[in-house]
Amino acid sequence: MKSIGAAGAVGLAGCSTDGGSSGNTISMGILMGVTGGLSEVGPAIRDAAELAVKQVRDADNGFSVDTQFENTETKPSRGVSGAEALVNGGYPIICGGLASSVTLQVAENVAIPNQTVMCSPSATSPDVSSLEDNDFVYRTPPTDKLQGSLLAQIAAERLEKESAAILFLNNAYGNGLSNGFTKTFEEEYGGEVLNQVSYSAGRSSYTSQLQNTLDGDPETLVIIGYPESGNKIFRNFYENFDRADMDILVPDGLRADDLPGNVGHDMTNVRGTNPSSAGPGIEYFKSAYQDEYDSAPGPFNQQSFDAAAVLMLARAAAGEDDGTAIRDQMRAVTDSGGEAVGPENLGEGVSLAADGNEINYQGVSGPVEFDDNGDLASAVYNYFRYTENGTENIEQVEV
């Protein structure tokens, strides 16, 4: 399912800030953390959502798109205030937020009670699945229930480890992954998790937390978090512990090509997983993203494009700025078996949906078919490793 967040409202260039339009105007809020814990990946995720908006605007299909951006600063309180600003501005759909902790707070306190449809491109905590959301919350990445199990499988089967320890960010994202890894590693593979140590973001040093995590000499270390804290954690690890050859596993939140440079140390002992992007429109998306931003897309960029695309298609199919009507179209535009719509013909897809035609949005990241919880029905992950110059995929794994 989903989430959002942010501080002061900032209108995007060329966009109005008077949401709640009707007819052929799609009004969509974008709530994402571009500062704080996700500052290294948030701006690019926002860019991907805006690219989907641009595809519709440039289609000359009679539709305009009105957006308003709110920066959550990767803080739940800012997410709630930003979501309130969008709801009060009349925006019936919200693309965002990023962090699971922000998502959960915004969903419970703003989106659900105000019947606002949300679709997150990166909130992966299993807790999102259990929200009593009346079907107003969706997400385009897979749940971490799957990723935690996959990391455990990699530790046990591919790395052949019998013991592990986990250092995890103390929020919904970190807790969900830590518990998911532990359950699978111990119950399915007979391994032992020696320590589960939580940490808070914003500390000047994580040496003591690392010491507690490494107590008992585990064979592998799992580090869960975001780049802002990850920079310090890995720097402390390499500077203070003679374990540079230790196998370390990380989830999607710590896949960042600039991490080794920021840490100042070789990180080739680190492997990880992140949701894959294998949809039929992936090459078109990569080219369009490169042309627009002069850079390659990064983690969750494809999921962000998909989240924005599905929201706009559902709004077009509903024909009005009514959250309930839009909610009722979220699955119809993704799994109806109608005419194929992807990034290359998204503008046309909006017109088709508005005219009452059945469409089947085929995601950049892969199939976007929602189950009863608003989660993806299936998922594919990248198994990757850090290199001297960033990261590279080892293989794709379907779960």
From TrEMBL:
InterPro entries given in the database record: BCAA_transport, Leu-bd, Peripla_BP_I
Keyword entries, A-Z: Plasmid, Signal
CDD domains, A to Z: PBP1_ABC_ligand_binding-like
Entry keyword Secreted: no
Domain Leucine-binding protein: 25-337
One Pfam family this sequence matches: Peripla_BP_6
Full protein name: ABC transporter substrate-binding protein
Native source species: Haloarcula marismortui (strain ATCC 43049 / DSM 3752 / JCM 8966 / VKM B-1809)
